[in-house]
Amino acid sequence: MREDGVWKIQILNYRPVWHTDYETGWAHTRPQYVAFFSETYPKDPAGPDALEDPKPVLWPDTDVLPFHYPHPVTGHWWK
Fold first, then answer.
1. Mean per-residue pLDDT for 61-68?
2. Which domain holds residue 24?
3. Residue 54 included in any domain
4. 11 lies in a domain?
């Protein structure tokens, strides 16, 4: 949404699988290399208005993101 010429992001559902340094690669990335927000605004001035529940996970933990389409061969929706 744009308000008075300024873009306002209502929901930012940023779900990376991992972050890493280009030089060392993903296999050498320490856990929680780039941590998700843990505090909301105004306690953290750069923080979000609300935190996600459940909290997203990063490498080495894993999270399965739901598909938004049926299986291309069977035609069944993923559960």
1. 74
2. 1-64
3. yes
4. yes
